[in-house]
Design goal:
With about 210 residues, the protein is an alpha+beta fold. It has one domain. Helix content is about 45%, strand content about 20%. It has seven helices and five strands, in the order ααααββββαβαα. The N and C termini lie far apart (about 70 Å).
């Protein structure tokens, strides 16, 4: 086979091909492990950069559906005020990735912890509406999703592999991404923590009726 692709030429050399085929066979495993390492580092960074004012709320973190399923199409890291962690339905802060055939995206914002239809009575609570209106419309998308109260884009790449190559394999890019996330995320929490608490109290009262 004749090819002008230098990477392909290198891989097809007989001394390199066996290792390349072994890597190809384990591609999903490698991708999953790289994503899990990335998300573990994001969790650690956000915990280490928690502002002093926010620490008093004892924010509890959780991966969904679990830490080990970071290769899922929809993967979320939740942060929740400890006062509401055991409340069935509530709002929390979230960083999420979404994978499809043509892109890999990371968003952050305020999300329902359970699926809520756009027409749900909970959306119409004054406290939820006040929270939504408080968000900066130039940063946060506040309509069009049944799950997000406010959603901000952070990363958009053509594939998981493009993302991992650009960010996790480059320490400078990774540092910049973490700083961008922690700055935006904790700014959001600091600006809305009281409004989110008011909304969660109202949601709790609604469910108790």
């Amino acid at each position: 086979m004749q090819t002008h692709d230098p990477i392909l030429r290198f891989i097809l050399q007989k001394e390199n091909l066996p290792a390349a085929l072994d890597i190809l066979k384990r591609a999903n495993e490698i991708r999953h492990a790289a994503l899990q390492t990335f998300w573990d580092s994001i969790l650690s960074h956000l915990k280490n950069t928690t502002p002093p004012r926010i620490k008093k709320f004892n924010m509890q973190s959780e991966f969904w559906p679990s830490r080990e399923q970071s290769g899922n199409q929809d993967y979320e890291l939740y942060f929740c005020d400890a006062r509401f962690a055991n409340q069935g339905q509530h709002l929390n802060y979230c960083v999420r990735h979404w994978i499809n055939e043509s892109s890999y995206a990371i968003d952050y914002g305020i999300m329902w912890n359970m699926e809520v239809a756009s027409a749900s009575r909970l959306w119409k609570l004054p406290q939820v509406e006040k929270l939504r209106q408080s968000l900066n419309g130039e940063i946060f998308k506040t309509k069009g999703s049944a799950w997000w109260v406010g959603e901000a884009g952070l990363v958009q790449e053509d594939s998981v592999e493009d993302f991992l190559k650009k960010h996790t394999a480059n320490s400078g890019q990774m540092k910049q991404l973490k700083q961008q996330l922690s700055q935006g995320f904790w700014q959001l929490v600091g600006d809305t923590i009281d409004l989110v608490a008011d909304a969660n109290h109202a949601i709790q009262r609604k469910h108790q009726r």
